[in-house]
Design a protein that fits this description.
Elements (H helix, E strand, L loop, with lengths): L28 E2 L18 E6 L10 E7 L8 E11 L1 H7 L4 H10 L13 E9 L13 E5 L12 E5 L3 E3 L6 H4 L3 H14 L4 H6 L9 E5 L4 H12 L3 E6 L4 H6 L4 E4 L5 H8 L2 E6 L6 H5 L4 E6 L4 H8 L1 H22 L3 E4 L6 H12 L7 E6 L3 H10 L5 E5 L4
Parallel strand pairs: 9-10, 9-12, 10-11, 12-13, 13-14, 15-16
Antiparallel strand pairs: 1-5, 2-3, 4-5, 4-7, 4-16, 5-6, 6-8
The structure holds NADP nicotinamide-adenine-dinucleotide phosphate.
Length: about 400
Amino acid sequence: MQAAGATVKRFGVLPRLFPARRQFAATASQCEPTDSPQSPPPSARLSMKMSGWQLHNYGGIEELQLSDKLKLPQIRSSDECLVRVRTTAVNPIDLAMLGGYGSKLLNQFRCQANDDIEFPLTLGREFCGVLVQKGMGVCHQQLQLGTRVWGVVPIPNSNGAHSEYVVVPASCIAPAPKLLDDSEATSVLYAGLTAWSGMYITGGLGGPCGAATSAGGGANKRVLVLGGSGSVGSLAIQILKSQGAQVLATCSENAVEMVRQLGADCVVDYTKPDAMEQLCTYAPYDIVLDCAGQGGQAAAESPYDFRQYITFNSPLLANIDKKGLCLGALQNVSDLVQTNVRTATQRGGVVKWGYFYPAAHGIEFLSGLVERGKLIPQIDSTFDFKDMPKAFERLKCGHMRGKIVVKLQTE
Ligand SMILES: NC(=O)c1ccc[n+]([C@@H]2O[C@H](COP(=O)([O-])OP(=O)(O)OC[C@H]3O[C@@H](n4cnc5c(N)ncnc54)[C@H](OP(=O)(O)O)[C@@H]3O)[C@@H](O)[C@H]2O)c1
């Protein structure tokens, strides 16, 4: 495993949502991009096979299989783009989905999208690469063939970014920040959009404009970030500081200095016996952002007051996996109500579930921060594509210090 350094760089972009989910590969345009001799294949070669990691069963890391005989994913709708992937990343959701997490609900979406065969499944939610083909509805000036793009893969897609090519809606990509290298650019969007949507869509930080536009906001709010050293937490801290919020963060001892350098006003080592006491000193919090997998139950048990506790570890998909769609949905309502009744009576605040949401204006917001030098990608470690299982092993060990990046092509 190699450790990779973090860097600051710039960007400016705005992708746009294109309507009309109509066809088709036949109406797609494709090209040979100019920015890299290795990049996109000539049109004739797009019918060739590609390499990718697939799973044919849920289970452990040994289920990941590398094949160089996979069919390229096809553009099926006029708003889609085919990207040749240069770098991708491994996130906790990949490890969870490898074990079957979310399969009951996600398969419903896959069926609607005509991807109705559960396996093989390719994981990977984010990437940096080159745009090689696009549907006829993709006419945004900034999305020219050959453009180096960063992007995310919506959760229900069964063809993720752990492969040489990926197809995503145009709204999920944008030109990659020029001053970020491919590894840095692949490490921002999935966790960044999770942090952004948790704070602005779920938490309403910044008011209606904060959620519906790329305006951000949240000056003078006091936010506690649980798990400030991980992918989501490290970006959440930087987003909040860029907006003038007061930020407290927790992490374990060896990450304290790193989290401080991200800009947190106060860092608490959660392993210390007086950690809770310290957190109580700064309460109440406008928002507690749980980026440490604590879940909603922990909110009621916390000794400090808050207005909103937003956790990214909701039981939503796990309940549906366990009980099926209808009973699982009922269980979700019951869980949320019970947690909130406990929390409202004990702490006076509400508990909400936050999610990754691939919004174009969220990407625009993050782009703006990178451009202004307010958001520095954090990379935990970097692996070659052939070593994908090792990247999963690293994730499994926990105590992440930023993102695990996987390289398909040399920069
Ligand atoms: N709902 C969604 O759509 C969504 C999307 C993305 C992520 N998530 C979830 O959000 C969480 C964070 O994701 P991530 O990608 O940032 O994970 P990550 O990179 O693995 O980071 C998690 C961090 O939490 C810290 N931590 C563990 N226990 C802690 C505790 N008790 N108090 C404070 N910090 C603690 C760990 O650092 P230390 O070494 O300092 O302990 C680690 O750095 C994960 O649980 C993930 O499943 C949900």
